[in-house]
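Work Package 3 (structural annotation) set out to generate three-dimensional models for the target panel prioritized at the project kickoff. During this period the team completed the workflow that converts sequence records into discrete structure tokens, so that structures can be stored uniformly alongside our sequence database. As a representative example, we reproduce one entry of 113 residues exactly as it appears in the project archive.
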Amino acid sequence: MTASKKKSERIRILVPTDLSPASRAGVRYAIQWSLHQPADLVFCYVVNILKPPSWSDNRYNAYAKSMRARYMRELRRFVTLTSNRMGVHPRNASHVLLESISVDIALVDYCPS
């Protein structure tokens, strides 16, 4: 396969973030990379939603559902604000919320082998 053919192939870039100001650099880098090579960007945020022992399953499930929605809004807002500051709007981008107590294991499990 030639180098020019490799460059035109669409790739998938996993962009984990913790929504901190420091992680904006990684988001910016991924967006800029996608401008030079066809890519699908997957912005990923790993969270751990704890269940207090005194809560019923119903109470926890309602709480967890609301927190998942909140975290997804925060992820989308973070990516949107970062891209707006760059003056670029990433195409072919998706947002993924993973739940785990271990970020590294969650990311490895998410990625196909």
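The first strand starts at residue 11 and ends at 16.
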